[in-house]
Design brief:
The protein is of the alpha/beta class. The chain contains ten helices and 14 strands.
Length: about 325
């Protein structure tokens, strides 16, 4: 296996008598978006603050791009682009001026800096507003600029801490699309959120964190498998529903098939890959299928199972 861009092992942090992070371990590969999913107060921000070397840890280690990270490791931190939950921009400066300022802090200068500023403005869709003061920007535009600042120096790891908090749905969708594009281009992304739909949309793997511990980790399908839930398929159909249900019950990975009034209800493993076979068997048995609905178990059910609480509790 290739060396991960981020490898954190057994991270621990206490604040007085309270344990905020208790043995957190995970890794993120190049081109992978890893979601740290948990409610407010679960330990997400404390964990990423230690990963970025902004907060000292009581135990464990962090390696980014092959180099250990700690509070004092200035050069090693250059591999990280950190986008904090709170906006880190100057309202009296334009978007371009903000990017220039933060680019200089990243040791960029001259033509390299100007080229990179233009590239990032295009990437975050702010080229047309580049010279406007950011105090005039909407919340979504400020969030996009915040992300752009983290990308200026071409980091190997981009850390996004709740990047869509307080933005309108349109801006939120634009941010999520931008993050998805960055992951597809090979950037390793650590994404913290307490929005379930964001994790389902963006993340290749997800770590569910609660009370400072990783409760489970894996792909969406792997996590759903932990609670034994299966996909549910509803065929709205006419014709010979009883014979069709019996035929479908014998299909591999179909665990249940029941004919009801105008419907066939199925419980299926990995239903989407089996749909062509289901439709073929139903038609062969005399059913005339008018519509199909597939309901897959979601991460909310997993989270409730593992923690006993809703995500935003």
């Amino acid at each position: 296996m290739p060396t991960p861009v981020l490898d954190c092992r057994d991270l621990r942090k206490r604040f007085g008598s309270r344990t905020a992070v208790d043995g957190v371990s995970f890794s993120v590969a190049a081109g992978e978006t890893y979601g740290l999913l948990g409610p407010n107060g679960a330990g997400k921000t404390t964990t990423i603050s230690m990963i970025c070397g902004l907060l000292g840890r009581d135990g464990g280690e962090v390696v980014v791009d092959g180099r250990p990270i700690d509070v004092g490791s200035t050069d090693a931190k250059a591999a990280i682009g950190y986008v904090p939950q709170d906006l880190a921009i100057y309202p009296d400066l334009s978007a371009r001026e903000n990017l220039r300022f933060f680019g200089r802090l990243q040791r960029l200068s001259g033509r390299v800096l100007e080229t990179r500023v233009s590239e990032v403005l295009e990437l975050i869709a702010l080229s047309e507003r580049a010279d406007d003061r950011t105090s005039e920007f909407s919340g979504g535009m400020k969030r996009r600029l915040n992300i752009g600042i983290g990308l200026l120096h071409r980091p190997k790891l981009l850390v996004l801490d709740e990047p869509t908090v307080g933005v309108d749905p349109q801006s939120r969708n634009a941010i999520l699309s931008s993050v998805a594009d960055l992951g597809s281009e090979g950037l390793a992304i650590l994404y913290t959120t307490h929005y379930m739909e964001e994790a389902e949309r963006l993340c290749d793997r997800i770590g569910i964190i609660d009370e400072g511990r990783i409760r489970a980790e894996g792909t969406r399908r792997e996590l759903v498998g932990l609670i034994g839930e299966k996909d549910r398929v509803t065929l709205v159909a006419g014709g010979s529903l009883g014979p069709a249900a019996r035929a479908l019950a014998s299909v591999e990975r179909v665990q249940e098939a029941t004919a009801t009034d105008g419907r066939i209800e199925l419980v299926v493993e990995e239903a989407r890959s089996l749909l062509p076979r289901i439709l073929q068997e139903a038609a062969a048995a005399g059913a005339v299928v008018r519509s199909v609905e597939v309901v897959e178990p979601d991460l909310e059910a997993v989270f409730l199972h593992l923690t006993g609480k809703a995500l935003r509790d």
